[in-house]
Prior knowledge:
two-stranded antiparallel ribbon, elongated
Amino acid sequence: MTPLDIDERVYLARARSADCxxxxxxxxxxxxxxxxxxxxxxxxxxxxxxxxxxxxGKTARAHRNDERPTCGECLREDRNCLRCGKITPKASxxxxxxxxxxxxxRYYRTPEPCDVCAxxxxxxxxxxxxxxNGRMCDKCLRSTVGATCSCCGKHRTVNLMTLDRRPLCxxxxxxxxxxxxxxxxxxxxxxxxVLPCMSCGIKRANLSRLHGAQNLLATxxxxxxxxxxxxxxxxxxxxxxxxxGASRYLQFLAKMDVALEQxxxxxxxxxIVQIFSTEELRRMGLLSxxxxxxxxxNDDAATRRxxxxxxxxxxxxxxxxxxxxxxxIDRFERAxxxxxxxxxxxxxxxxxxAAVALLTQAKVARATQVGQKALDSFxxxxxxxxxxxxxxxxxxxGLHGLRLKLKPKSAxxxxxxxxxxxxxxxxxxxxxxxxxxxxxxxTAKLLSKLLNAPLDRILQLRHSDLDLKDFRNLRxxxxxxxxxxxxxxxxxxxxxxxxxxxxxxxxxxxxxRMLMDSLSASAVDHHVKPVLRARxxx
Length: 538
């Protein structure tokens, strides 16, 4: 409904003229308004004579031209709200000849500023306890008269404030020491009544949200996934996280539901990977974790990363279609595929991205037209692509005989003292770390530093790669390495609880959030960078 429609309907509830519709006398206020026409108090009994109500037989003041006179009581008895259709004997707002209930009246009022915050609102209320505040919006009203009850923990209107400044609601003010058991789990809850504790209340809200959203999903498979996901979240101690991301999870489920309905195929891991990108699977959070544990998402992080790289590379190819130098990029890609050793998909995407960025900025028709000046200008503007660009520059020099050069980076070698401080800092952080994820991340970074191995390779180590008898040997790339004795206490804490309980024969040493995933490099940086910044200033 547009604001114009609202204004017109509200206008119909008032007299169109300040003159009486019968005698034409000027009126300060109409005695009665009927169909937009006002009548003065003298004409009212003439135009609206007392007649018999055709419904109940009582006296009715109806218009003299009304063939079926009806009294006000009968009119209100069957009156419906014009927006929601609810029976509304007591109207909160009259809109023309129709009425609006208390819940819907705000949709037909003209927004007016709150006397406290000046924010326009259609819901303005006064508080008898704070008459000086005038009319307040809902937010200001709640903050003025309401607070969290110190007994039951609910946000209610403050009925009593104790001497030690503890607010109490009306129910708790009558019995300040009252409590009751939670009807779901039996935990003692403050306040009188039968309300559940906060944890069980969140679980109930999750189930209520599930029942309310079932009609939004068309396929039974996705409905079952949503139901099982909600049950899994409530029973595994993740009810709060489930409630916090409920709207986001429902959006992903709806997208899955639409794809399943259009393709008419069973729901499995292959379909999920086709529907969602790696970024979307990461943003799914708890839903992705459930899909992995339920066996619907079997791909590990490396497989999902490969799919993501292929999708990004395909998007990059589509974006340069029609460019005059697109053939040069195709030739560069073929050269990368023919190289020995094989260039990884991620590196290939990085090389292609850098090459496309250079040719786009240089504004040339062919790659052979790129000059040293254009190359230097690009590196100065985007120094982060310099390393990836070196492969494309070598390709152009070798294929076309160009003499392009990238200025070498002047690097100052890190002193042995600095490296020792780095290792000592991480060891101290591992010993003082309060939680297992942080210890795992710091340990992975420490092994990567000591063994001079890529962090991704360290994160893929499994329990079978560690000598679990004395923790002195570690297998890396098929070769067993003997580790320093100072690392024994750190390595002894690596075996996971699942392995110790015999639930998994060979799990990952650095297990991540997902069932088949290890910690990510980003998760490691999340724990390592604050430590280095606080202790080394790096």
